[in-house]
Amino acid sequence: MRIMILAACLLFSTMVLAKKTLIVGVVPQFESHKIREIWQPVIDELSYRTGLELKLQQAIDIPSFEKELANEVYDIVYLNPYHLLMANDENGYLPIIKDSTRLLSGILVVSKESGITSIEQLNNQEIAFPAPNALGASLMTRAELTRKNIEFTPVYVHSHSSAYLNTVLGVSRAGGGVVHSLKQQKQSIQDKLTILYQTSKVAPHPIALHPRVIEQRQVFYDAFKGMFSSESGKNKLSKIPMRGVEAAELSDYDNLKMLNLEQFIER
Q: Which contacts of 46-49 are long-range, i.e. CB under 8 A and separated by 24 or more positions?
């Protein structure tokens, strides 16, 4: 009888969930139109494969994203690994999926016309970063520069694209980003920049679920695996980028804790 009651409760919960619109959040590495261009096709196919109604809710910048994450706005969210650790600690978000083909690292770019060939030349200079807590593009990079005794003034410009543009225009001597976001820039921007420095590597951005929908973990995992099995689905996921899909666990990010980034976090 007890098993029957539990099964009935789970069935009722699933029926209620199926009628509810689940909110999808995406860390804003790019401008809103670019994020929608990448993610809306993914969300549409996930809705089809899961039978759940999903809606993309875009934050205007990374600090706004962090506030919505802290306020538990998102049911499903694509976020950087440090945001994951924060969201898990505060609200119990758990990772379910990550890219199986790559690791995450930050890069510093400089203008090819700047004459800068070493990070020591950035001492006492302004460096553009998307936001304080962007993991590869800011946190890891700032931490490693500080530990190498490079003094600099961080300027937060809201997105990876803005950090690159500031560098191209000479507003900042360097800019923080990640390889994928650099490759997403117009060719005219890429052609004017060179990668000066690359940080250590950690597990990549996961997709995580809020505890209120964690019972759908297998449903979403199967949907992502199903997408990857088709050429059209694989193409959509590659733009995130996810070029391979594997289950993600919180323990995958244990090495991130060893980097001791707490002193560089801004809340």
A: 46/220, 46/223, 46/224, 46/227, 49/222, 49/223, 49/226, 49/227
Of 73, 75, 93, whose CA–CA distance to 83 is shortest?
93
Strands 152-156, 193-198: pairing is unpaired
Q: Residue 84: name the closest of 209, 239, 216 by CA.
A: 209
User: CA geometry: angle at 58 spanning 53 and 60, to 5°?
Assistant: 170
Q: Taking Cα atoms as reference points, which of 178, 128, 119 lies closest to residue 151? A: 119
Separation of alpha carbons 246 and 132, rounded Å: 29
List the one residue out of 178, 157, 249, 213 whose CA is nearest residue 20.
213
Quick one: which H or E segment has residue 56? strand 53-56
Q: Enter the tokens of residue 58.
A: 């875009």
What is the C-alpha to C-alpha distance for residues 160 and 182, in angstroms, rounded to an integer? 8
pLDDT at 266 over 80: no
Beta-bridged to residue 76, according to DSSP, are 24, 209
Neighbouring-strand partners of residue 78:
26, 207
Which amino acid belongs to residue 216? Answer: Q
Q: In this structure, what token pair is assigned to residue 103?
A: 């690791």
Higher pLDDT, 218 or 20: 218
User: Among 109-123, 189-203, 244-258, where is mean pLDDT lowest?
Assistant: 244-258
